C-alpha cells in the first residue's frame, strides 16, 4: 500500500508477498488442492471475519440497515455520489448532521414536519412526495411491496433507489 511506503515492516511484507506470488523458485505448499480452491476458501474466511466485525461494531448503525450483509454489499455495483453516501450513512448534507456540528442552527427539514434525517427524507418529507411516489410505483410494478425495508430498498431495488436519491436537491431541503 502506498500509504505504508517507508515503513520497514510493511516493505518487507510487501517484498515477501510479491516474491511468493511471482517467484518460480518458491516451493509449492500444496499439491492436491487447486490454487483456485485455496483462494476461494481464503476469500470466504475473510468475508466471514469481516461480517463478524461488521455485526459486532456499534458504528454505522444506519448503514447496516441498508447493507446488513457485507457479501451482498460488495457484489453491488453502486454509483457512489455525495447524495447516496449522505442517505446511507446519515452524514454529509443532512440538516441533522450539519446541526450536530453546529454548522446550522436548526435541524428541521424545510418541509417543517420534523428533523431532516434519512428516514424523514425517504418516508415522510412532503417536498419529496412526487419522487417517492415514482419510487413506490417502480417497486410495486416489479412485484415489490410497499412500505419496504432499507435493506430491500438498497439490495433488491438498487437502481430505483439510486434514481430516487439522485433526485434529492439538498440545497432546497
Describe the structure.
With 173 residues, this protein is mainly alpha-helical. It folds into two domains: 59 residues, no CATH class; 109 residues, no CATH class. Helix content is 56%, strand content 0%. Helix 8 runs antiparallel to helix 10. The longest helix has 22 residues. The chain is elongated. The protein starts with 7 loop residues before the first helix and ends in a 7-residue tail after the last helix.
Task: Kindly summarize this structure in a few lines.
The protein is mainly α and 173 residues long. It has helices spanning 8-22, 35-56, 61-66, 70-75, 82-89, 95-100, 118-123, 129-141, 150-155, 158-166.
Amino acid at each position: 500500500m502506498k500509504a505504508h511506503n517507508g515503513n520497514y515492516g510493511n516493505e518487507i511484507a510487501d517484498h515477501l508477498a510479491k516474491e511468493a506470488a511471482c517467484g518460480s523458485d518458491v516451493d509449492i505448499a500444496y499439491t492436491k488442492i487447486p490454487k483456485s480452491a485455496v483462494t476461494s476458501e481464503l476469500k470466504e474466511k475473510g468475508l466471514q471475519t469481516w461480517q463478524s466485525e461488521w455485526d459486532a461494531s456499534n458504528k454505522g448503525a444506519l448503514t447496516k440497515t441498508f447493507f446488513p450483509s457485507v457479501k451482498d454489499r460488495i457484489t453491488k455495483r453502486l454509483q457512489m455520489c455525495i447524495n447516496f453516501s449522505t442517505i446511507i450513512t446519515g452524514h454529509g448534507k443532512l440538516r441533522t448532521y450539519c446541526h450536530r456540528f453546529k454548522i446550522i442552527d436548526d435541524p428541521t427539514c424545510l418541509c417543517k414536519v420534523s428533523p431532516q434525517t434519512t428516514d424523514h427524507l425517504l418516508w415522510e418529507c412532503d417536498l419529496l412526495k412526487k419522487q417517492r411516489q415514482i419510487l413506490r410505483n417502480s417497486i410495486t410494478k416489479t412485484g415489490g411491496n410497499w412500505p419496504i425495508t432499507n435493506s430491500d430498498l438498497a439490495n433488491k431495488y438498487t437502481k430505483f433507489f439510486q434514481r430516487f436519491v439522485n433526485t434529492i436537491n439538498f440545497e432546497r431541503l
